[in-house]
């Protein structure tokens, strides 16, 4: 009788070491522009292979993962009462309108609205 084994990626708690390093690098540099080549160099992998593996393991391309990190940090800063313009700058968005567009797309409300509701809680 043949025993079926799950691939390592599917085992609970296991994370591909290269992807783990890539995620750590993005967390450390979330507010900076991180080109795929720079990220690939940081983890010693080709950009194409990294992009494919990252998407396979995380479910998002590296840039989208970094955007999520930025937005999570933005929510924290907005809840602390910082202005939308300040938060956009601190979290690495190109400008306030780009930040507002991304925030609205992900959370279905504007950063200003979120700031008001979060500070009332």
From TrEMBL:
Residues annotated as transmembrane: none
Pfam family, one: HTH_18
GO molecular function terms listed in the Swiss-Prot or TrEMBL record: DNA-binding transcription factor activity; sequence-specific DNA binding
Coiled coil: none
InterPro entries documented for this protein: AraC_XylS_family_regulators, Homeodomain-like_sf, HTH_AraC, Tscrpt_reg_AraC-type_HTH
Domain HTH araC/xylS-type, residue spans: 20-117
Transcription regulation keyword on record: yes
Record keywords: DNA-binding, Transcription, Transcription regulation
Residues spanning the signal sequence: none
Protein's UniProt name: HTH araC/xylS-type domain-containing protein
């Amino acid at each position: 009788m043949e025993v079926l084994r799950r691939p390592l990626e599917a085992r609970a708690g296991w994370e591909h070491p290269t992807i783990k390093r890539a995620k750590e690098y993005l967390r450390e540099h979330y507010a900076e522009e991180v080109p795929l080549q720079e990220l690939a160099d940081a983890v010693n992998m080709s950009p194409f292979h990294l992009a494919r593996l990252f998407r396979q393991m995380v479910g998002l391309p590296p840039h989208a993962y970094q955007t999520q990190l930025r937005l999570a940090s933005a929510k924290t800063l907005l809840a602390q009462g910082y202005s939308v313009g300040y938060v956009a700058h601190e979290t690495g968005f190109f400008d306030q309108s780009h930040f507002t567009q991304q925030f609205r797309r992900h959370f279905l409300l504007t950063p200003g609205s979120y700031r008001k509701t979060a500070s009332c809680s």
